[in-house]
Each structure stands twice: as C-alpha cells, then as structure tokens.
Amino acid sequence: MMQLYELLDSVRDLLPAAQAAGATRGIVLHGTSPRPTQTVFLGGYRFEASLSRSWPARNVITDDGAILIMETSPGEFYIIGSGLTVSFARDPDTDSGIAGIETVEQVTRVSGRWTTERRLNGDQTNQGRQLLLDPHRPQIYRVRLYSIIPKQGS
User: Fold this and answer.
1) CA gap 69, 41 in Å, rounded
2) Which of 47, 79, 82, 118 could serve as 138's disulfide partner, Cβ 3.0–4.6 Å?
C-alpha cells in the first residue's frame, strides 16, 4: 500500500488539474465484484479492465486490482495501478475508429522528472491490444494510443 501512495505522491502536482479538467477515471475490481469487467471512457477512448489472469490457463491471479487513468494530452495517458488487464478501443460515441497501443513505457517520476524504466513490447501488450499490469506491485505506465478513422464509403 505504501508504494501506491508514493506513486500518487509523484503525480500530486498533475492530478488536481487533470481532475478539474475531467481528465481522470478510476477502476476498482475485486474477486467478489458482481461483474468481471468495468469500462470507463476518456479522451475518445474506451478502457475496459478485468482482473489479471494467468496465461494460458486464464486463472485469476489476484483478488484485487485498481487503476487511475490520467489523460495528459490527446492520446497520451498515465495509468497508475496493479492487478488489472486493460483493453483499449475507440469510444463509439466519439467515432467509429479503430484504436490500439502505439507505445507503453513503465515510468517513474522523481522531482518532476520522468524516467523510462522499461518499454513494453508486443509480447507484453498482447500485440498492442492490452496493458497487462503487474498483479501485485503498483506501477506507473505512460500509454500512447493511436486511432484510425475509416474513410466513409470504403
């Protein structure tokens, strides 16, 4: 729990402005939640989360998961949390586009300076479709999403 507070403390200067601008969302899931997934919408994208599962057996590997999503610019989000798998798509109320992950970096922030700890590749993002958060250790991820809008009449 202490590590989560440290992560939130590292973005304490960014969070109030993002909240005031309506650019934050949160998801919390428990093993006893009545639904296996939760969905939120932000910045023209749909974020659908479920508890982390093993591969290939697909057994739930954590009892709890939570994230805070903060949009910092169009298509760029910081996701803080653990225990969830997050899928991305375009918000159907925005357009009929296709969305995916452009890049995901696990980052830290000290004294206002961001440092990339590691860049996730296709094996770690289900080929650019999902963010698989560590099931037990909270982290901060910088996620850049792309969207492609199909041409009408194609």
Assistant:
1) 10
2) 82
Q: Could you give the dihedral angle defined by the CA atoms of residues 144, 135, 85 and 147, in that order, rounded to the nearest 10 degrees? A: 0
Three-class SS state of 8: helix
Closest CA to 95 of 151, 30, 144, 24: 151
pLDDT for 65 equals 93
How far from 5 is each of 15, 19, 30, 85, 94, CA to CA, in Å?
Answer: 13, 17, 20, 21, 34
pTM (2 d.p.) = 0.90
Q: Which two tokens stand for residue 116?
A: 């990339």
Digit-coded pLDDT (tens) for 127-148: 778 898 988 899 999 999 999 9
Whether the upstream peptide bond of residue 74 has omega within 30° of 0, thus cis, is: no
| 31 contact partners, CB below 8 Å, separation of at least 6 | 51, 60, 62, 63, 64
Torsion (CA) 4, 25, 16, 118 in degrees, nearest 10: 50
